[in-house]
């Protein structure tokens, strides 16, 4: 069989490289656009508590479309689904660039991102074998993190220089992602010919949710990744508030540099996870999750830039080591039970519900006037306790 590639060929095939390139450009656009749009809110004098609301409308799109995007990814060639999703992101960025309401434009980007996610992760299982799946996930995470690293910094630096130029770059990058998607091989749809009536689709999605949440292994993965990404997105907004409060720096670029430090760490952590963790010993990643919370507490107390940079790199290392094996576990078991696209859609619902709750709590804390340092300490303690409880809870099967 010519399509049974050797493991290295599967990882470094043209199709996989096209997926990684498309993912890099798409994630670069997402991160640059977030910081450019935050600068738009600042320029238009929106209140500080409205900054996390920007991310909440993005997350809301994920939750609203969760019952449909998994089936959408499994019903068509995933490379084409990715291309359509990146086209929606391009439209949203162009809308913000044209001066339309930033919350409206960013919602459109959120709808594109919701459709994109099940397809980008689902295609990994189609291009690689099970034994290569953790490595493929590591490559995907490394590409995503490199994009967060460069995209966040580009968004902040360009916004300080020229806001319209920053938004224009986002539009161009999304255009590049659409082109990259054309080079992904057109695989047959995983589960074609399904019913598209909303009622049955919602019922099927709820059945997939039930299947995954009742299985001890996948529940463990869903809880872990939901806590991680909820915390990650909250930390990003906390940095925007923390930098002027703790360091006295008020530009757009410094929070993006600090975000970049987390990204560098995640690349290293993802690489370590690919070498040290397999699906058989996935619990090895849990101490790293507890460490994230402890390090956030230490970070919140800093008043100098250099130790802040070092601590954020360490937070990133722990994050990469923690989340990559949990993603691979969910894809492997989800593909066998409800389909990879549906599994990722269920995961997205959990992650985005966690983001919405954590961002809502954060926005409320800011609105009530809680200090950035205090928010950081409380956030770190709660995260460490939550991961410790998940780790120590006996019996995750059944």
UniProtKB/TrEMBL annotation:
Membrane topology note: Multi-pass membrane protein
Gene designation per UniProt: lplT
GO cellular component: plasma membrane
Localisation per UniProt entry: Cell membrane
Predominant place of localization: membrane
Protein name: Lysophospholipid transporter
GO MF annotations in UniProt: transmembrane transporter activity
Keywords recorded for this protein, A-Z: Cell membrane, Membrane, Transmembrane, Transmembrane helix, Transport
Transmembrane segments: 20-41, 53-73, 93-117, 164-184, 220-245, 257-278, 285-302, 308-330, 342-364, 370-392
Organism lineage: Bacteria, Pseudomonadati, Pseudomonadota, Gammaproteobacteria, Enterobacterales
Pfam families: MFS_1
Keyword Zinc annotated: no
PANTHER family: MACROLIDE-EFFLUX PROTEIN, MAJOR FACILITATOR SUPERFAMILY (MFS) PROFILE DOMAIN-CONTAINING PROTEIN
Coiled-coil region: none
